[in-house]
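ERR on first pass: missing label on line 2. Operator R.T. fixed the label and resubmitted. Corrected input:
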Amino acid sequence: MHITDILVTGEPIIYGAMVSMALVGIALLFILTYFKKWKWLWSEWLTTVDHKKIGVMYILSALLMLFRGGVDAMMMRVQLAFPDLGFLNSQHYNEIFTTHGTIMIIFMAMPFLIGLMNIIVPLQIGARDFAFPYLNALSFWSFFFGMALFNISFVIGGSPDAGWTSYTPLSGAAMSPGPGQNFYLMGLQLSGIGTLATGINLMVTILKMRAPGMKLFHMPIFTWSTLVTCFIIVFAFPILTVALALLTIDRVFGAQFFTLTGEGLPMMWANLFWMWGHPEVYIVILPAFGIFSEVIATFAKKRLFGYNVMVWSMIVIALLSFLVWVHHFFTMGAGAFVNSVFSVSTMLIAVPTGVKIFNWLATLYKSKIEFTVPMLWSLAFIPSFILGGVTGVMLGMAAADYQFHNSYFLIAHFHYVLIAGTVFACFAGLVFWYPKMFGHKMNERLGKWAFWLFFFGFHVCFFPQYFLGLDGMPRRLFITNVAEWLPLNVISTVGAFGMGLGFIVFVYNVYYSFRYSERETTGDSWNGNGRTLEWATTTPVPYYNFATVPYVDEIDPYIRMKEEGKTTFEEDKVKPIHMPSYTGQPFIMMALLGLASFGLVFEWMYVAVFGLIGAVFMMIRRSFDYDDGYYVPVEEIKRTEKKARGL
Amino acid sequence: MKAKHLRNRWLGLLPLGLILFLSGCGQLEMTVLDPKGPVAQSQYDLIVYSLWFMLGIIVVVFALFAYMLIKYRENRPGRKESDYDPNLHGNTTIEVIWTVIPIIIVVLLSIPTVTTLFDLEKPPEPAAGEEVKEPLVVYATTADWKWFFSYPEQDIETVNYLHIPTDRPIEFRLTSADSMSALWIPALGGQKYNMAGMMTKLYLQADEEGVYDGRNSNFNGEGFAAQTFKVHAESEEEFNAWAQEIQNEAPELTADRYNELLQPGLTDVESFSNTHLEYVKHHTKDGMGYVVENYREQFKEKLHLYEIEKQESFQ
Amino acid sequence: MAAEELKTGPLEYRTQEGQMGIMGFWIFLGAEVVLFATLFATYAVLFGRTADAPLPSELFEPGIVLVMTFLLLTSSFTCGLAIHEMRRGSVKGLMLWMIITLALGLGFLGFEIFEFVHYTHEGATIQSSAFWSAFFILAGTHGLHVTLGIGWAILLLIQIKQRGLTNVTSRKFFIISLYWHFLDVIWIFIFTSVYLIGMVI
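pass 2 clean. output:
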């Protein structure tokens, strides 16, 4: 096989991307070598099992993916605002909207939230680490190599081009031959393993490792949202695993599940995909609800209104999320009765969600609202999300959905809920917990610039799309040379660039804050307004998290601790702490599985088998690994704590 | 004051921007909100009915939101001691109220949704006093990336354009020769999928004469943007005259010609004096694999349909 | 954490690591249930879509499937005996019954492979129709699980030989016993809803 058979050729934009990727790669190698950081990279990051460091790596990857997905979005918006420019052709546009959707959901939103969960959940419940730290590292690296595999597709082999939903028969071997669609299948499969493992890991962590005295209904609301999310992950992800595996077997081994030959059933893909896909939407929105609840209570300086109702509404949403998948294809002709049932179940989700909105508003009642950057993101969520929520109910009305389906009305709706919900929450959570992760806050002034640019950009970008949809503009259309559609498309593009600008300011703020922000001296970074246990640790958080774990028997335990002058360092109670050892095994195991997946993408079976054997060998090594970790001596804990607390 | 500065933006810009925007868009004629037939009309009615509820919800939430933000910001001048109650965390009465009201709204939205859904499964009923007409049957078949409309009653077939009589229900029998697509004529009503190996039914009707835009709305690959067609709605007499003319003058659709047309790619409008239904039935288990089996090689090459970009408009 | 070790109760439950490992595995089995449920649903939906390939009723034979069922059910019983011996503290008993379990599992696998090869010769392959794709993937996924279980158990047998009964080795054996019983349950569903129904219709 010749190299030009694998590399994508003939696209100036992709050549540009190749060159810039090569340059960035060389620069990184140079910097690591020049500053002698290779050992540091390996021993501090690639082999880490510390939940906080793994969380940071998740978030960094997610920000990188937000950039990539964002560039995809900008390119689409340029093409749609200037159809005469000939900027993108049909094929290229199809690849871009496919990667945009897949990346934003699977490789941006989910890892961003899982990163925040990684860092915060153990701290909120008073745990020293995850239940299975090794497995946690494994999860991260499976996500990482899945992401890497998916992303190299646009220079090697060609990107998938059948949409992030990858509907059969279009995405089957007959109509989409070649490696593109295999990249989608294997990238998602590989990272899906990690997500499932994280779900199990966090569930056990939350159920088994809470601070003494902390009942389930004492848990911080973000931890609750994580627990409910993990429940959805455990019961939804296996469906995706099966769907992806079946389509892979169809494509690579010639089976007939979703084909037009052999009496295959292409429509089954849509069902399987959305049986996972709809719960997936709630996997990325419930943690967002949790983050908003934490931030709003903190900066309203008031207890969250209706804690129990908040928890129960999340549980109800989680259950309902499994019962609505058909609303993604009301137009498949399942008949009036089926559509009626799924219409009603869909609209019912609005009830617990509405209750949550009112609870947040009631939390603001008789509060003292402080407009910090995380609070701005959280407050902006409420009106923005409502605009997405009500249109969601409209889409849920099946008879009307026949007109909305596949149109820009739908595009506007899900960007309204996913950006105003998930993306706002990612920013809110990152800024809110930033001092816990890095020992300094992000600059507030720049943070507000980033917020307002992104916020206005968002509304200007997506509000017009409702009207484009009502004017009959279908989604996934690469050219808009219908004169009436052009003005709104231009407005939308302007908004998209506003969001892009907001993102750039945000990234610049990371650098600026690193250079100039004041270093934190206390753990309770937001003017002493912390309510839950994560704020009781020192900043930066010691690797063992808590010298002594406090007894907890209420919601917002840190408020009482502050009143009583208690800390997480009671000198006479310190005992040696058991910690897991760092190991390079997860990285190597997943790199080998990544190699196997890459082989399968090109259907090079010897590569696939080699990678698989390597990964199995690593698993066998793990089975014989009886490394039981180590103990942190009392003296070292006391020394660390006294230094951090200035005692 | 920082907070005041913020309040002005929140209150001033956000709703004002929306209102400006709404009024700006009011001047646009939006196809879905300008129905030309009974099916589109019933969907339009449902949309407008739901919009009132949605507007109500938005107004209530925005008002409460604005109130909370103004009244309870930390450094509002003249804040009273009683404006702060950090331990307030529940009120059963009000929580029951804001749970019950959404449930009532859902019920009120469900009833017309369900009735409309069942109505859409039948041909639209004529206005009071008018005679019931048998629906005109049109087989709408898609192949990458074109439309075949077969009229078994008239024994004619058109490619990429459609003629229908006004004031008579049209029964579309939708299927696909290869990828999944959807028939959508927004002025006449909502869409339904065309799927190989299956047949879906969609009833539409035009009340006003005119030329409407129709398209495939479900993404199906490279030529998706060009898979559009014009719908010519005309009086029954004109329609019959047109059908007669096609029957008399158009060439015959031979099996070879049909196979040629089925290959992936674009094609112009065409007319034929018979239908393809006599050669292959794509909606059956036997016919569903017809195209992928015969044209496996053609699907392996990307077609680079640059002509799409050069076209002025597909509508 | 590891320091706090209970003095009573089953060995595998005495440390928090042990308890968490077992709980995590139960949740994993929950995910496995969903995985197999999806495969069963796929099979049910594609039932009857045999195209030109032979019908299941022409190929399914009660004899061989009954033998397979007998082997796997018995192996589940011997696996239970192995854990019983483990609770009594007998490494020897545990190893003996576990080896018998694996032998029965291997027998099951042998028959399954024979059966698959036979169907392939009769013209029913994974490629021949949607129904046969679904059949081979459903039964094959179960078979793959059994294979992995056998490989896994062999690793554990080596470990218990090396280290004897500890908190860790007993936890590992307890977990693989859960896994083995789970595979048995799945097989009962495959036996009834695939083979019995397939033979009748």
